[in-house]
Amino acid sequence: MQQAADQHRPFRRALAGITGLAGSLVAAAALLAVPGIFATSHASGAAGPAPQFTLEQRGGGSVSLADLKGKVVLVNFWATWCGPCRKEMPLLEQIHRKYAPLGLVMVGVNVEEDGRLFDTFLKDVPVSFPILLDPKNGVSKLYDVAAMPSTVIIDRKGNIRYVHQGYQPGDENAYQDMVRTLIRERT
User: Fold this and answer.
1) What is the pLDDT of residue 44?
2) What pairs with residue 110 in β-bridges?
3) What is the pTM of this model?
4) In this predicted structure, what is the pLDDT of residue 182?
5) The sheet that has 150-154: what strands, in order across it?
6) Mean of the per-residue pLDDT values of the chain
7) CA distance 151 to 166
8) Is 121 helix (H, G, I), strand (E, B) or coil?
9) What digits encode the pLDDT tens for the residues 128-169?
10) Which residues of the chain have pLDDT under 70?
11) Which of 70, 74, 142, 147 could join 51 in a cystine, given CB atoms 3.0 to 4.6 angstroms apart?
């Protein structure tokens, strides 16, 4: 009887090793699927109408998404404490300057309560596109922002066409590709 049990021992060890490896792979896949855990950048196509909002603009006045219908709109959610936001902001400014004459409207949505922080940041990294203020994160919640920065690109009909969370060098190329595609589309 002992001899039969000894014959199956290597099989049992192999099976235990495979089971443990499979469990580890499932756990790793689950962690990678959670936004912001290990991945620093994630993009997806999206569909459906963009949630409407009106936000106060830095320097006075307000901007309403409804007023931008008929234009391609890039909305970038950011914060001063976000290192990738600091790297991305000058590149967004370049995209804005290049495509604004072709119909792109870009807005930055700052999610911080303290306006002094973003004023200091924008002195170091000036931009010409409007900076909107979302200190209570109401609009960020409407758009299910789970990572900083997050970029949403909306087509001329007001539908979300592209959502990107995080930033890695080179991501701006995907933004430009989507902007070019949407600018070429006619309503």
Assistant:
1) 61
2) 78, 133
3) 0.77
4) 96
5) 41-45, 160-166, 150-154, 72-78, 104-110, 131-133, 54-57, 62-64
6) 82
7) 8
8) helix
9) 999 999 999 999 999 999 999 999 999 999 999 999 999 999
10) 1-46, 187
11) 142
* Cβ count within 10 A of residue 182: 23
DSSP H helices, 100-170, are 115-124, 138-142
pLDDT the model gives residue 166: 96
Q: In residues, how long is the chain?
A: 187
DSSP code for 102: G
Report DSSP state, residue 100.
Answer: G
Helices (H), 66-148: 83-99, 115-124, 138-142
Query: Which tokens go with 143?
Result: 């758009």
Q: If you write DSSP's letter for every residue of 5-72 in order, what string do you get?
A: HHHHHHHHHHHHHHHHHHHHHHHHHHHHHSTTSS-SEEEEE--SBPPP-EEEETTS-EEEGGGGTTSE
| Tokens 């499979």, located at residue | 22
